[in-house]
Every structure is written in structure tokens, then in C-alpha cells.
Amino acid sequence: MNRKILGIAGLLAIGFTAAFGTAMTAASTAAQAAATLPPVSEMMAERVLGDPKAPVTILDYSSMTCSHCANFHVNVLPKIKEAYIDTGKAKLVFRDFPFDQAALSAAMLAHCAPPERYFPLTDVLFKSQPNWSRSSDPGKALAQYGKLAGMTQETIDACLANKELADAILNTRLTGQNQFKIEATPTFILNDGKARIEGAQSFEEFSKEIDKLLK
Description:
Layout: E1 3-4, H1 8-14, H2 26-34, H3 40-43, E2 48-49, E3 56-62, H4 67-85, E4 90-96, H5 101-112, H6 118-127, H7 129-133, H8 138-148, H9 153-160, H10 163-180, E5 184-185, E6 187-190, E7 195-198, H11 203-214
């Protein structure tokens, strides 16, 4: 079943430290203060997979804890990449649409990674989704993947405690709701609404819609 939309207020009510199981110690807070992150505007800069000038734009609204979203990234996106993205016919832009605290934390981690590691880290997080999303301490589990992307524990702690970044990601979700009436994930908006694909769909379904836009 697709993940249906939940209220942003409810997500915010969870609290940004709820996913970590225990309150941060004074030492970890000091370490976070010492870690330097880029400005939020830089971390939230649009991440594009493919040629920015490609004629077809695929906006991918997904939640990092959505199983259908993971299925798309693991099984369908590689075929789209080979047929359309690598050939310059299409590009994919990932738009965060978190449904819970774990998804929000995963999205924050990806944005804190160096830009060139954003999509590789997102790919790894989707492939390993059952491991970290069902963990009793998702924050600790996610930190292991952040380290694989070259981030220090201090940077990861600072990242996951960054309220401004969390608010920016939630605002991306709100914009998707208002602009494109996103109600479930995954939802794909092609060329500013000229085509729309919802839910767990096959490569053939994407190919059909992309080919129409290429004519």
C-alpha cells in the first residue's frame, strides 16, 4: 500500500530527538557545535541526476521509509537511468516527502553529505531501508551510512539536530502538496505536470509516458 499523506504538524510533534532514543549529552552537544555544516540553502540546493538540460524532467516525490519508493529506486530507476538519463533524454530530481521521523532524519543525512555523494547515499539508504528504518535507534543506524559517505560522527550529530534543515525539508513536502496535490508516495511529476505517475509502476509505464514527452 502506498504511504498516504500525514499532517506536517503531527510530524513536527514527534520532536527532532525522538528518533535517537536518548537525549544528547552535553559532550555530544558540544561536538555538534564544533562541527561545521554548509548553509542550509546550499544543502537544499536541487540535486539533479542526469543532464540538467535534458528535455524530460522527472520530479520524484518519495519518503525514505516508503517501501514502494525503495522498490522504484532499487528496481525501476536503474532501467530508466540506462534508457533515458544516461542518454540525455531525461533527468531526475528527488523531492523529499517524509512521513515519519526516521524518513526525515534520513533525508537530512542525505542533504548533509557532499553533493556528489547525495544520490549514491540515497541509493544505499533505499537498498538498506529495512535495516535502519526498523531499528530501535534509527539515528544510530543512519550514522553508519553517513560515515560510509565520508561524514564524521560530529557532522552527523550536527546534521540530525539541525532544525533549520528539518524545516526546509518539511517545506519541500508542503510545496509538493500545494503545487502538485501530492497525496501518496511515490508520486512522479513529469515536465511540470504534463504527465503524472503514482505508486508502484513498472519501467514500461515510465517509458510510455517519457516517450510521449519526447515526441
